[in-house]
Amino acid sequence: MLKDLMQKAGTIGVVLAGIAVVMILFFGFNRVDEYEVAVKRNPVTGAVGEAPYRQGLYHSILRSWTNYSTREIQYPAAGGSERLTALTSDQLQIEVDAAFRYRIDPDSAVGLYLQIGEPAAIHGFVYNTYRSAVRDAVAEIPAAAILSRDRAAIGDRIDELMATGLAPRGIYVTDFFVREIVPPATLREAIENKLSREQQVQAEAYQTQVVAEQANQKRAEAEGIRDAQDIIATSLTGVSGQRYLYWRYLEVLGEVANGQNNMVIAPTEGGIPIFFTPDSQ
Fold this sequence. Notes:
The protein is an alpha+beta fold. About 55% of the residues lie in helices and about 20% in strands. The chain has seven helices and ten strands.
């Protein structure tokens, strides 16, 4: 009798073991990698584990698991960017081309699961916070001021607004990039016209400087000629000047007499020579 009971107990144990193996194989395991954290939930009672689970292999019998990546997540993916439209404080529409990266705090995984949901829901929450931050940051200042500021300053303000909405929940923005700010067509035309006018004014100012410099050079040249004439006129007056002129007169006569020519020089009573060629007589 005892032997039969033991055999039956053994059979029952084998059956239970088989059922356990089947259940384990059927429900399987949940693997949590080194860059992940998992939240456990009992699908029967709905109870959620109080602490997140780190790297390891956990069975899924009467358990459902939600894994969250602890790596940085970029939006848009693959190094892209997204262009958003927003209104400035003066109600002008501009476009902001931006991208960002974020990550979750592993210790906040349970709270994120209870308050927001699975990873896709968390990503949607971060994206909506990003859109709201862009619009709020742009709405704080007029369009002209946005274009005159450094893009990094706009990015810092958007990053600050995102951190205000995300950090208390355990989500952190690690990088924010503003790649381009596109102003409205009317403002862009006004800026281009302003730059064109400034360049024109600079060109005219340069031309004016060139003309003034040329005038100064001509004035200096005229003053030099005048001073030279004054010096010559002064040096030729008086007895010494007459002697110099007479000496120069004789010197020129000597040069003409020694030259290769058939010119005849006839002195006159007035001291002014007459030059003529014999062939012309």
